[in-house]
UniProtKB/TrEMBL annotation:
Residues 16-61 form the Mur ligase N-terminal catalytic domain. It is found in: Cytoplasm. This is UDP-N-acetylmuramoyl-tripeptide--D-alanyl-D-alanine ligase. Pfam families: Mur_ligase (PF01225), Mur_ligase_C (PF02875), Mur_ligase_M (PF08245). One of its GO terms (cellular component) is cytoplasm. Keywords: ATP-binding, Cell cycle, Cell division, Cell shape, Cell wall biogenesis/degradation, Cytoplasm, Ligase, Nucleotide-binding, Peptidoglycan synthesis. It catalyses: D-alanyl-D-alanine + UDP-N-acetyl-alpha-D-muramoyl-L-alanyl-gamma-D-glutamyl-meso-2,6-diaminopimelate + ATP = UDP-N-acetyl-alpha-D-muramoyl-L-alanyl-gamma-D-glutamyl-meso-2,6-diaminopimeloyl-D-alanyl-D-alanine + ADP + phosphate + H(+). Involved in cell wall formation. Catalyzes the final step in the synthesis of UDP-N-acetylmuramoyl-pentapeptide, the precursor of murein. Residues 299-388 form the Mur ligase C-terminal domain. Belongs to the MurCDEF family. MurF subfamily. Its main location: cytoplasm. The keyword S-adenosyl-L-methionine does not apply. GO terms for molecular function: ATP binding; UDP-N-acetylmuramoyl-tripeptide-D-alanyl-D-alanine ligase activity. The gene is murF.
Length: 424
């Protein structure tokens, strides 16, 4: 079956499933493989549960015409996504970066959808499977697609750019994330900049944070760009007002009061405003979109529980985002602050050093109470309370009920520190 024929089949059955536990009637099942599973072995089950066709890459599993045999299921899914993207009239905006990708993507979606029929990456489905699935969710009437792209090693953004073929692109920032895969901050910059490489090579348009030195240097010779800045008036100027705790900013004399905490969310809002202006969304509608946006999924949420005020930022963490969150928490006008921070993952050989730096930083900021959780933090030299496991932390709270106060909870996804809400 040719790619064109497969696309015609997809138009007839426009729902993709890759998990037999989530089969919907009439879908196309793509039998993907993983380290511990072979999707081909589940193809028959997918058809029995209601899938219209199963795309497989091992001939022994083909027992009827409802099995579509290809050379490689993953590559076929990616190629189909690119083909579908090119059949669509939608413009694609891709974004990547070390921190703030998902929040920025959701803000851009909120703003752009004020004027255009828009889809965006669901959650953080931003990898070699998630990006194709996002592209394949572009329906005939969609005008704009906001595609988030994540990476933890070199070459990944280049590959995702080739699949998504974006018309526009934005990089949130370059920080100490996924150092295990990228090797160093310089590696992160090079890896994330693969989006710039694609956009420049194909004469596409770039949005930029003109206050970011690295972005300025990378894009200096390139003409097709537009940026925002707090100080440089040759770019679109946006003024930061405060973040105590919520970010308030001003654009063209219009004040925008967000429901996002932390100055680190200011550039995320700026990117959405800049794109809204570029795509001719009225400033009043931009204001409405940003002021209405509420963070979810353990990302910079403020929760009131049993007399405690909790800043829940436990979706993920790396040295750069952790430092920004700690600085912001230190500036919050609140009493009896308790800091609960968990291990940061994927730091490779730098793990011990980066955790020690953060442990020292908490002492420098002078928080009332600091609780460090995880094996990496447990090995640091610090006066803070340390807990090797979450269970140890849980036991501590059960034996030592905490006073009412303000908490910051942050750690990598694998730490699942949101569980602490059930204990407080």
């Amino acid at each position: 079956m040719t790619l064109e024929q497969l696309h015609a089949l997809f138009i007839e059955h426009p729902t993709i499933c890759t998990d037999t536990r989530k089969i919907t009637p009439g879908c196309l099942f793509f039998a993907l493989k993983g380290p511990n599973f072979n999707g081909n072995a589940f193809a028959k089950d997918a058809l029995e549960k209601g899938a219209a066709y199963a795309i497989i890459d091992e001939e022994e599993y083909k027992t009827s015409d409802r099995f579509v045999l290809c050379e490689d299921v993953l590559k076929t899914l990616q190629d189909l996504a690119t083909y579908h993207r090119n059949q669509s009239k939608a413009k694609v905006v891709s974004l990547t970066g070390s921190n703030g990708k998902t929040t920025t993507k959701e803000l851009i979606h909120a703003v752009i959808s004020q004027k255009y029929r828009t889809i965006a990456t669901k959650g953080n489905l931003n990898n070699h499977i998630g990006v194709p699935l996002t592209l394949l969710s572009i329906k005939e009437d969609i005008e704009m697609a906001i595609v988030e792209m994540g990476a933890n090693h070199m070459g990944e953004i280049a590959m995702l750019s080739k699949i998504a073929q974006p018309d526009f692109g934005y990089i949130t920032n370059f920080g100490k994330a996924h150092l295990e895969g990228f090797g160093s901050l310089e590696g992160v910059i090079k890896g994330k900049s693969e989006l710039y490489d694609y956009l420049i090579a194909h004469d596409k348009f770039v949005f930029m944070n003109a206050d970011d030195r690295v972005q300025q240097e990378k894009l200096a010779p390139y003409i097709k760009k537009i940026g925002f800045s707090t100080t440089d008036h040759q770019f679109y100027t946006i003024t930061f007002k405060e973040a105590n705790p919520y970010v308030i900013l001003e654009a063209e004399g219009t004040q925008i009061k967000t429901q996002l905490i932390g100055r680190y969310n200011f550039p995320n809002c700026c990117a959405a405003i800049l794109m809204g202006k570029y795509f001719n969304v009225p400033l009043g509608d931009i204001k409405t979109a940003i002021e209405s946006y509420q963070p979810q999924n353990n990302r910079s949420q403020i929760i009131s529980k049993n007399g405690h005020e909790i800043v829940l930022d436990a979706y993920n963490a790396n040295p750069t985002s952790m430092k920004a969150a700690l600085e912001n928490f230190s500036l919050m006008d609140a009493k009896n602050k308790t800091l609960i921070i968990g291990d940061m993952f994927e730091l490779g050989e730098t793990a011990a050093e980066e955790h020690q730096v953060l442990a020292d930083f908490t002492q420098k900021l002078g928080f009332d109470n600091v609780l460090l959780v995880g094996e990496n933090f447990f090995r640091t030299q610090t006066v803070a309370k340390k807990f090797k496991t979450f269970e140890d932390l849980k036991d501590y709270f059960l034996k030592n009920p905490v006073e009412k106060g303000t908490f910051l909870i942050k750690g990598s996804r694998g730490m699942a520190l949101e569980r602490i809400l059930d204990i407080l």
